[in-house]
Specification:
Structural class: mainly alpha
Largest sheet: none
Order of helices and strands: HHHHHHHHHHHHHHHHHHHH
Shape: globular
Number of domains: 2
Oligomer: single chain
Length: about 475
C-alpha cells in the first residue's frame, strides 16, 4: 500500500480517528495494530519474515551477551542476504519482503546498542514490535534508533491542529516532489538509460542531470510524506535529507544525504573499524609507507573503504553498485587525505571560502562529482555505465541537431518543446524553494502555507497520476 494511494488515504483517516479517540495510554496499541495491517498489504509471505526478525531479535537480546548477539546478527543478516542476493544462488523471481534492508538495519542497530550497553533491552515484545513495524518508516526509512523513537511512540499525544497543519505541509511538499518533479523526469531518464548506446553525449548529460534531480525528488519526497504523516500523529521522525545538492564538498554531501543510513554506518561500522586492533596494525603499516601522513588519516583508510564497499553491496550485489561504492570510497579518501594540504594551500593563495563565486564553484563541482558517480547507480549494467562515460567524453556536441536529439525522449515538435519548458520551470521552482530554505529558513517558515497552496495547485495540474512506487522501495 503506497503512501500516495487512495487506499492509504482511507487507511490513514481511519487510523487517525481511532488513534485520537482512544485513551492516550492505548494509542501505541493502535499504532502497532495499524502498522501490522499496513505491512500485511505487502503480503502474508512478507509478514512472516519480518515477524521472525522481530521475535528472534527481541528474544535473544533480552540477555545481550556475545553468543546471543552473534545468533541475532547471523539470523537477520542471513535472511537479508538470502532474499537480496538470491539470484546469485540460482534462485530467480523471489519476492523480497517490503523494506527488508531498512528494518534489518534497525534490528541490527538495536542488537548492537543493547550489547554495547547504550540502551536497556526491551522487556515488552509488543513495544519492540512497534519500533520495527511503525508504518511511516518501514518501507524506506528513516532508520530510527530505539532511544530516539520509543519515547515518542509510547507517549500519549493529544490532538493538536498545529501538528495536522505542519504534517499536511510536509505531505504536500513530498507529493509535489514525487508526483510532479520525479514523475515528469522519470520517462526521460528511463528512456535514455534503457539504451544508452543509442544517444549522443548531450542527451546523456541531460539524462544524468535529470536522474540526479529525480532521485532526490523521489527519495526526499517520500521522507517528507513519511515525516508529515508521523507528525500528524504527534511523532517526529529523524530527518533524512538536508538539501544535499547545496553541499560544497563530498563529505558534506554525505552528511546531508540519507542522513540516518550514514549515521548507522558511522556508529556501527566505521567507528568500530577505526578503533579495532586490525586497523591499528594496518595504520602502522601505512605509516611506514607514508611517514608524513597524520595518524588520524591513516586510521580512516581501511574503514572508509569498508564502509563504502558495504554501502554499495547494501544497495545490491550487482557490479554497478559495487563500482559506485568504490568510486565514492576513492573520492572520500582523496578528500580526507588532502584536507590538510588544501587548507595550507588556501591560506597561501588567500582563498576565501565565503566568496559567493567560490561557493557557487564548490557547489557545482560537488554536484558534478556526485552525478558522475550516479551514472553507475542508475545504469543497468557496468558496461552501460562505461558506454555513458565514453559517449559523454568523446561525443558531446552543442549544436542545433544535438539539442534537437536531446529533446526527442520528450516526444516530437511542440510536445517536446512544451515538455522541456514545463520541466525546466518545475526544476527551477524546486531549486528556488530549496535555495530559500537553505539561505532564509525563517522566511520559508513564515510563508509555508502560501507555498503549500502553490505546490498543491501545481501538483493537481501537473502531477503524474499512477506514480505510486518509490524508487528506494527496491532496496
Amino acid at each position: 500500500m503506497s503512501l500516495i494511494s487512495l487506499a492509504f488515504l482511507l487507511f490513514f483517516i481511519i487510523l487517525c480517528i481511532v488513534y485520537y479517540l482512544v485513551e492516550g495510554k492505548h494509542q501505541w496499541k493502535v499504532l502497532l495494530i495499524g502498522s501490522i495491517v499496513f505491512y500485511a498489504f505487502a503480503g502474508l509471505f512478507c509478514l512472516v519474515f519480518i515477524s521472525i526478525s522481530v521475535v528472534i531479535t527481541w528474544f535473544f537480546m533480552r540477555k545481550p551477551d556475545k553468543p546471543h548477539l552473534l545468533i541475532t546478527l547471523a539470523i537477520n543478516l542471513g535472511i537479508l542476504i538470502a532474499f537480496r542476493y538470491s539470484i546469485y544462488f540460482g534462485i530467480h523471481d523471489l519476492i523480497i519482503p517490503l523494506g527488508i534492508s531498512f528494518y534489518t538495519f534497525m534490528t541490527l542497530g538495536y542488537a548492537l546498542d543493547c550489547y554495547d550497553g547504550k540502551i536497556k533491552p526491551c522487556t515488552n515484545p509488543f513495544h519492540y514490535a512497534l519500533y520495527i513495524f511503525y508504518f511511516p518508516q518501514i518501507t524506506q526509512g528513516p532508520i530510527g534508533t530505539w532511544q530516539n523513537m520509543m519515547p515518542a511512540l509510547l507517549t500519549p499525544h493529544a490532538f493538536d491542529p498545529e501538528n495536522i497543519k505542519e504534517g499536511g505541509y510536509r505531505i504536500i511538499k513530498g507529493c509535489f516532489k514525487k508526483l510532479v518533479i520525479a514523475g515528469r523526469l522519470s520517462f526521460y531518464v528511463d528512456t535514455v538509460f534503457s539504451s544508452p548506446g543509442g544517444f549522443g553525449g548531450l542527451t546523456l548529460i541531460t539524462a544524468v542531470f535529470f536522474y540526479a534531480i529525480e532521485l532526490y525528488a523521489d527519495f526526499s519526497g517520500y521522507m517528507d510524506i513519511a515525516c508529515g504523516i508521523s507528525r500528524m500523529l504527534g511523532i517526529k521522525l529523524a530527518e533524512n535529507f538536508n538539501r544535499p545538492y547545496f553541499s560544497r564538498n563530498i563529505p558534506e554531501y554525505w552528511r546531508r544525504w540519507h542522513i540516518t543510513l550514514n549515521e548507522w554506518f558511522t556508529a556501527h561500522l566505521f567507528m568500530p573499524a577505526v578503533t579495532s586492533k586490525w586497523n591499528k596494525k594496518a595504520a602502522k603499516a601505512f605509516g611506514k609507507l607514508f611517514p608524513k601522513a597524520k595518524k588520524g588519516t591513516l586510521r580512516t583508510i581501511l574503514p572508509l573503504i569498508l564502509v563504502w564497499i558495504t554501502t554499495g553491496i547494501w544497495h545490491g550485489a550487482e557490479a554497478v553498485y559495487i563500482g559506485w561504492g568504490v568510486y565514492f570510497a576513492v573520492i572520500m579518501l582523496l578528500s580526507f587525505c588532502t584536507a590538510s594540504y588544501m587548507k595550507t594551500l588556501k591560506v597561501r593563495i588567500h582563498w576565501n571560502d565565503e566568496n559567493v563565486w567560490i561557493r557557487i564553484f564548490q557547489t557545482l563541482r560537488t554536484f558534478i562529482i556526485v552525478c558522475i558517480g550516479e551514472v553507475m547507480f542508475r545504469a543497468e549494467t557496468l558496461p552501460d555505465a562505461f558506454t555513458i562515460y565514453h559517449t559523454i567524453f568523446t561525443n558531446t556536441r552543442i549544436n542545433g541537431s544535438a539539442i534537437a536529439a536531446a529533446l526527442t525522449p520528450f516526444g516530437n515538435g511542440n510536445q517536446a518543446a512544451a515538455s522541456i519548458i514545463i520541466v525546466g520551470l518545475l526544476i527551477l521552482g524546486l531549486f528556488m524553494t530549496e535555495l530559500q530554505q537553505e539561505l532564509h529558513p525563517d522566511r520559508v517558515l513564515k510563508h509555508r502555507y502560501f507555498i503549500a497552496g502553490a505546490l498543491l495547485t501545481v501538483t493537481i495540474l501537473f502531477g503524474m497520476a499512477g506514480q505510486s512506487n518509490f524508487m528506494y522501495q527496491s532496496f
